[in-house]
Amino acid sequence: MTSPDSEPRYIAEFIDGPLEGHVDSRVFIHGKHSPRISMVVAVEGLESLLWYDEVDNRDVEGELHVRYAFDASDSDPYVVEDGHEIDYP
Known about the structure:
Layout: E1 9-14, E2 23-27, E3 36-43, E4 46-60, E5 63-70
Parallel strand pairs: 1-5
Antiparallel strand pairs: 1-2, 3-4, 4-5
C-alpha cells in the first residue's frame, strides 16, 4: 500500500474569489490533475461549497502547478463581515 506522502502530487493555486492566494497540495486522480475542484469553507460556522476551474498549468522545477479561478455561479453564497475570516479545511 502506498503512503499518502509518496503519492504523486501537484500544487493548486487559487487566483481569485474567497480563497485568493491560498495554495494547496493535491493528489493526482487516475494520474491527472483535476480540471475542476471544490473546496468546503466555514464562514461564521456555516459551511459553503466553492467551485474552482482550471485556468492554466505549468511546470515549476519539476512540479506541476495548476492555477484555478473561482466559479461564483456554481458556488454557494458566502459572506465575510468585518473581523470574520474564512476557515480553511
